[in-house]
Fold this protein.
Amino acid sequence: MGKRLITQRRGRGGSQYRSPGHRHLDDVRLPAFDEGKGTITDLVHAPGRTSPLTEVTFRGKKDYLLAAEGVKVGQELTVGSGEIRPGNIMMLSSIPEGTPVHNIEGVPGDGGKYAKTAGTSASVVSRGEKVVILMPSGALKEFNPRCRAAIGVVAGGGRDDKPFAKAGKKHHTLRSRSKAYFKVSGVAMNPVDHPHGGGSHPHVGKPSTVGRNVPPGRKVGRLSPKKKSKK
């Protein structure tokens, strides 16, 4: 009897694949109020995140936000009205076209869902009944003009420039985020470990595409190509 595949093991869940929420400093949501000012008191490392966080004091209470490139300790951040400056939070309807933004709300008031990875940003393309934004993936997405976003690019963009140099560092880096490491391809395994395993040299041994009429649980991966239309 064969072994359970890695994707099946991941689907069963467990501490190996669960986000280490007890180590997270904060969920870095945008402030719940519409107007206000705060001061950056510190820049801190956030375990399990790719970017640093800013420790901001709003109305005497400490809060954490994603750090934008160029912000510094002692800088004043504004929520609502204010100038176009990295770190400030404004409605999409008030942000000029071409401005880089991050931590964009999908629904007004949800605190921010999009463009939160280190070094990423989206760009405002046009404004009207809907605000069109160019996402980091290159896709164009429409948002409610009352959705808010933070100005600038998320800090920490150079994290991929420095090599890991050894496997141990990569293991500990991914382990802190509960990410699986050492991913082995199916064709490199033995027949007992994977349907693609075995053979005198790495080869799948059977069609790897999936039919278009298979049930939902089977319809994953590479779908079979469409038939050529008759001219």
Remarks:
- The chain is about 5% helix and 20% strand.
